[in-house]
Design a protein that fits this description.
Largest sheet: 9 strands, mixed
Strand content: 35-45%
Order of helices and strands: HEEEEEEHEEEHEEHEEE
Length: 270
Amino acid sequence: MNLWEDCKRNNSTMNRSLMILLNALFLSVVTSSMDMKFGYHVIDGNAKYFENIETNLEGNTVKIHTPAHNDVMESYQIQDFRQGLQMKCLPSLKQCRLRDIDRKTAADAGQVTEGFIHSWNKGDNTINSDNEEVVKEMFYVNLDEVVDEKSLAGTLTEFHQDFKYPVYEEKKIPQDSEVLNITGTAGSRVKRALTTFIGLECHGQPSKLVFGIDTGRSDNHLKICQIERYILTDCGNIHIYSPMVYQCICCPWVTSVATTGDCQCNRMGW
């Protein structure tokens, strides 16, 4: 019995060692060419699509292309972990958004590549939204403040050349902020709103600053694995989504951004 248990343990150790060796060989080949292109078949509700991913281990960059589906806008994203910055370009809005990488939710080029290799070894390249950890990012932009393209450097400059849209800095919504939904009746009005706020008539009451969430959003899906003693463990699917958020000035009684005379929002960029 002890001999059989020893054999099983030895076989298990050999299998793990072989897995590490195969991954190391795979990564060495990838590193020699630096760029690795792959992707996942994503099932997101009623939508099925292919998400394209490209990693560069030497530059520690990750690029993700997500096609339009459901209420998700097409997006192209690059994360440059050396600079600590990411840029997301949205063709439907004709704008790009720049911000610091959130290290709590982002996986660098090595982690993203390892996650794919592990899923590839298992013959699994599908991500289902029913089995994901959901991370909601809440950022907004001021469309009156355009980032100077000359301030961009390295891979961000090269990435932006494919779009040449105006670049806006994304800012994180403060945790204690009031966040309201922008309803359908407000959509066309918000799109035509002025780029600066003017005084509201709130029957003598002070107005309030809120953040309005529109129906559109951007997102991406990844397989991320934790490494423990050189073994990949706790591999799971992560869904990071970012709703379109806009800064608004509203009368104090407003509970949703819908009534023209009660709210003013910065323009959406259409």
